[in-house]
Amino acid sequence: MSRLKLKLAVSDFHMGAGPLLSNGHHNHLEDFLYDQRFAEFLEYYCAEDYFKAEVELVICGDFFNHLQVDPMEVRPEFLTERVGLARTGAIMDGHPKVFEALKKFAAAPNHKITFLIGNHDLGLFWPTVQKFILDRIGNTAGIHLKPQYVIDGVCFEHGSQHMAENWIDFDNPFVTNGQSEPIVNLTFGDLFAVRFLYRVKKERPYIGRVFPFRPYLWWALTHDTLFALRAIANGFAYFLGVLFRIGENRRFYTRQTVKIIKEFTYPLQMDRAAKEVLSSHPECQIAIFGHGHRCASTQFGDGRWYFNTGIWNEMTSLDLGSMGRSLRFTFVEMRYDKNDTPNGQLKEWKGRYREVEDMVGV
Q1: I need a surface site. Which of 41, 120, 155, 343 has the fewest CB within 10 A?
Q2: Averaged in consecutive runs of 10 residues, what is the pLDDT profile of the chain (362 residues)?
Q3: CATH number of the domain encompassing residue 75
Q4: Is the peptide bond before 147 cis (omega within 30 degrees of 0)?
Q5: Total tally of structural domains belonging to the chain
Q6: pTM for the whole thing?
Q7: Which domain holds residue 276?
Q8: Contact at 8 Å (CB) between 59 and 113?
Q9: Residue 211: which H helix or E strand, with range?
């Protein structure tokens, strides 16, 4: 009898240093509050029939939030190797239950973990950070240093490479010119988050969890006018810095800036990007992204599939079809048949007593 084989995909936990700071105050930068839920999820896929199964957990980026861990940091955009190591240690210390569960998962027979790099966890490019994480979890874990992870008929990626504002330069991940020590080459969206969004979150902690953002902006202009006007003015000043390449914004060029403006006006459809990915990988039947923060399951005309893992954080939707606050622990499970063909299904973790259920009509 052949061994059960499956892959699991999750993404976008955005883990910081934990919900409480060392002084006992609330950490407004922390998004991930569900350590116990995730630990139970990993335990489930290590128990009973899964204990000896061949199981790979693929974390499709943005598991860590390396952009800013300490709210008191003055220049969080300077992500040096030393800073990246310190932030990773703070994240691990802030979520001990998660990393203990990952260690147990990786230690189970035929289990492994693969981390992909997203635009929020670019600190993973540093070799010392990679070693620090793998020493903590175990030698059956690995960090994939390319945009796409293609294996067994499935193409995994974070998804940010299809958006100009979050595009990662995997070939040149560090900035050295004019620096006393190398720093990570943050994306436009990363710098926007650090210099604008995280400062705004101190006043309105929910702002990073609202989608689509433009309807919220119109709502804020009507119901939270002073805050909205101040935020728009600061955002406009930041964008001018990008346009005229002021300060750290000198790394963004006119062509990229035009693409960013175009994408803001005409948002990218992730399923369209996934279809292009599958066209470039005829050997793959499934493409799996994170980054979009909205779970998705789409079958194309040729029978191939696109899945988005969604996000393990609370979100507030302003779309009429999904209006309101939601918290869904979504993931993609792929089981391989006797011909080693992957069959994917978007699922939702329900907890110990109702582990998973199929999601239909997403």
Answers
A1: 343
A2: 88 93 83 93 94 96 93 86 96 96 96 97 97 95 97 96 91 84 89 81 75 76 86 78 60 64 69 94 96 92 95 75 75 93 94 60 48
A3: 3.60.21.10
A4: no
A5: 1
A6: 0.88
A7: 5-358
A8: yes
A9: strand 210-211
